Structure formats: structure tokens, C-alpha cells
From TrEMBL:
Residues 392-412 are annotated as: Disordered. It holds the Pfam family MFS_1. It is a multi-pass membrane protein. This is DHA1 family inner membrane transport protein. PANTHER family: CHLORAMPHENICOL EFFLUX PUMP RV0191, PURINE EFFLUX PUMP PBUE. One of its GO terms (cellular component) is plasma membrane. GO terms for molecular function: transmembrane transporter activity. The lineage of its organism: Bacteria, Bacillati, Actinomycetota, Actinomycetes, Pseudonocardiales. It comes from Pseudonocardia cypriaca.
Length: 412
């Protein structure tokens, strides 16, 4: 017979969240690191630049597809074991990437690393929300997501510098070392977090219910709108804004820093009213893209528009996670990995849509395409605001919007 455990102290909970932040920061840096050393990878492996670019797509596919599959397979496992296991496998995948001279093996390692990151993210959200009071779960989610946001702002540029100095393999060695540090920290800091709910089959009908799929579609639209424009922001800045060279990095840093700030702040808004936050975030992203299209020729205003875009997108991410898990009810454990998958699908589709627009028009067409998608996203955000979690037994099937009473897990 299990006995009830007292919830961890605030200091211990913060230490756990810091460890999870470290993990998502390292894994997020690894996801986009190839972008900064693409030419070095292509030259070393003797493949074309487009072929090297496929390594980014392979990672995203591994995360979007493999992440949910692995999460389903590990659905009954203690979240601590999931975190440790996914980090260990992530280290192995990146060691393969460092040692292999073969492009095919590197591609397979990237797919595996993406899948293990998806599994880690799901486990991190579950562990993070388990060690805080119910009214702080949105903020816990924002800390986990912020690791990815900060990696885009800082981790990738720093990794690129290491790659330029020590070669692309040197930058991946750094990822292996930092991943090992995150693994040790997880072993030492993260407590046992038993799985809640039933098996994958029992949870699937809740995790893939129409109300959950509707919010996942919203995630696809939001990230599709943003990356329709953002994927081609460099040619836009060069041809429309009139900036080039090192100055472009300042614009990208403004977006990345704003995304990180928004993701930290977004947790409080998720706790207050996640549905309303999604409406504000989607509408704000639409306004930022519209401003970029209309005043993009003015450098200062273009930078402000990019910063606003990052702020709104970062601010919506915790609420997307919160809404998906709460609307999944008893399927929340399985649903933890789905928002990241939906976001990656949005990134891929948005990039394709923006690219097609540029092929038939000017570079501004990518931003205009993002605006069109963002209009649909804003309407979808308003519509999904009326969705409610399923009515279930709160003692057996806890969800973020209907917190359980103290039980044998760490959730208070």
C-alpha cells in the first residue's frame, strides 16, 4: 500500500525545474545546431548543401513522429526513468553522429535524436507539473519550454562559434558533454514521478479526441504562420529592409530573445486563463506579421515587429501545452508530447508555404502568406476557447484544470 508523499519544497521544486530547463536547452540547441554548421557538415560528409539540410528535416520528423510513439511505449514508466533513459539514448545518438564518416548513419542518428528529444520533452512536462502546486503548472510548463526558446536565442549561435573554431564535430562533442551533464543532474535532482492514468490504449481515445485535435491544429497554424515568414526572413531583410551581414544577426537575436522572454512570462498567463492567452497570442502574432509586411522597409520598425512576433509566439507556447493536456483529461500523459509534434508540423508546412509563395513572387510574399495563415489561426484560437475538458473522476484522472487531491505521487 502506497503512502502519500509530501510535495517537495519550493526550493527543491525550483531545482527540478532548473534541471529540466537545462535538458530542453541542450536538446533544443542540438536540434538546430546543423543550421549553423551546414556548410562544414556538407563538405566533410561530401554531400550537397540541400542534402545536409535534410538533417534538419530528419530531426524534426523524428521528434514529430517518433516522440509520440516512444511516449506511448513508455506511458506506464516513472517519469524520472523516462527522462534518464531518453537523455542516455540521446547521448548515444550524438556520439554516433560525432564518430560516423557516413551521411546515412548521421541521418539515422538525427532521426533517433529527434525522437528521444520528443520523449524527453513529454517526460519533462509531466515531471515539472508534478512538483509544483496546481496553480503554478502553467509556469512550470513555461520553464520547460523556455529551454528550447533560449537555445534558439543563445545555444545555436554559441554552438556555431564552437563549430567554426573546432569543426562541426567539435560542436557536437559539446552537445554530448552537456547532455551527459543534464543526465547526471536528472539522476541526482529529479524525484520519482509515477505515471498516472491507464495504458496507451486507454489514454489514446482522450489524447486524440476532437477537442484535443482542434488545439493541435491551432498549434500547426500558429507555427505555420510564423515560419512561413521566419524561414525566409534573411532574404526579406536583405531585399526589403536593406540590411545585410552581421546586422542581420541583431534582428534574429531580437526575435530569439523576445521568444525566450515570452515563454517565461507565458506561464503566468496560462495559469490565469490559457484559452484567452491563445486568442491574444494568435491575434498578436497576426498584428506583428502585418506590421512587418507594412513597415518592413524601416529597419527599426522591422526589428520591433520581429521582437513582437517572438514575444507573442513564445507567450502562447505554454498555453498550447496547458490546453492540450487539460483537454486530454485522462489522456494527459500521452498528450504531453503532441504539442511539440504539432509545432514541428507547423514549422515544416509553413516553410513549404512560404517557399512556394516566393517562387511565384517576391520575398515579401512569404510574410503575406504568414499573414493569411495567421488570420485563420486567430479565428481558430477564438473557436477553441469554448472547448472544455472531459468530465472524469478527479481522483483517478487528474488534469491541469481539475487538480487532484494529494496522492502517492508528488503532485500536491
Amino acid at each position: 500500500m502506497s503512502t502519500a508523499q509530501a510535495p517537495p519544497s519550493k526550493g527543491r521544486a525550483n531545482l527540478v525545474l532548473a534541471t529540466l530547463f537545462l535538458g530542453t536547452f541542450v536538446l533544443g540547441s542540438a536540434e538546430l545546431l546543423v543550421v549553423g554548421v551546414l556548410n562544414l557538415v556538407a563538405a566533410d560528409l561530401r554531400v550537397s548543401i540541400p542534402a545536409a539540410g535534410t538533417l534538419v528535416t530528419a530531426y524534426a520528423a523524428g521528434l514529430a513522429i517518433g516522440g509520440p510513439i516512444l511516449t506511448a511505449l513508455a506511458i506506464r514508466s516513472d517519469r524520472r526513468h523516462v527522462l534518464v533513459g531518453s537523455l542516455l539514448l540521446f547521448v548515444v545518438a550524438n556520439v554516433v553522429a560525432v564518430l560516423t564518416p557516413d551521411y546515412g548513419s548521421f541521418l539515422a542518428a538525427r532521426v533517433g535524436a529527434g525522437a528521444f528529444q520528443g520523449l524527453f520533452i513529454a517526460g519533462a512536462f509531466a515531471a515539472g507539473t508534478a512538483v509544483v502546486p496546481p496553480e503554478r503548472r502553467g509556469r512550470a510548463m513555461s520553464v520547460v519550454f523556455s529551454g528550447v526558446a533560449v537555445s534558439a536565442a543563445l545555444g545555436v549561435p554559441l554552438g556555431t562559434l564552437v563549430g567554426q573554431a573546432l569543426g562541426w564535430r567539435g560542436s557536437f562533442v559539446a552537445i554530448v558533454v552537456l547532455s551527459a551533464v543534464a543526465l547526471i543532474a536528472s539522476l541526482v535532482v529529479v524525484p520519482s514521478v509515477p505515471s498516472t492514468g491507464g495504458g496507451a490504449g486507454d489514454q489514446a481515445r482522450y489524447a486524440f479526441a476532437p477537442r484535443v485535435l482542434a488545439v493541435l491544429l491551432l498549434a500547426v497554424l500558429v507555427f505555420g504562420a510564423v515560419f512561413s515568414a521566419l524561414t525566409y526572413i534573411v532574404p526579406f531583410l536583405e531585399s526589403v529592409t536593406g540590411v545585410s551581414g552581421a546586422l542581420i544577426s541583431a534582428f534574429l537575436l531580437a526575435y530569439g530573445a523576445a521568444t525566450a522572454i515570452g515563454s517565461f512570462a507565458g506561464g503566468r498567463f496560462a495559469d490565469a486563463n490559457a484559452a484567452r492567452t491563445l486568442v491574444v497570442g494568435a491575434t498578436g502574432a497576426l498584428a506583428a506579421l502585418l506590421a512587418l509586411y507594412l513597415v518592413g522597409a524601416a529597419a527599426f520598425l522591422a526589428m520591433l515587429a520581429l521582437a513582437a512576433l517572438g514575444l507573442f509566439v513564445g507567450g502562447t507556447a505554454p498555453s498550447l501545452q496547458y490546453r492540450v493536456v487539460s483537454l486530454a483529461g485522462p489522456g494527459g500523459s500521452l498528450a504531453q508530447s503532441l504539442p511539440a509534434s504539432a509545432a514541428n508540423v507547423g514549422v515544416a508546412l509553413g516553410s513549404i508555404a512560404g517557399g512556394r509563395a516566393i517562387e511565384t513572387s517576391t520575398t515579401s510574399a512569404a510574410v503575406l502568406t504568414g499573414i493569411v495563415i495567421a488570420v485563420i489561426a486567430a479565428v481558430a484560437a477564438w473557436a477553441t476557447g469554448f472547448l472544455k475538458p472531459p468530465v472524469v473522476d478527479e481522483e483517478v484522472n487528474p488534469s491541469p484544470e481539475r487538480p487532484p487531491r494529494p496522492s502517492s505521487s508528488l503532485s500536491p
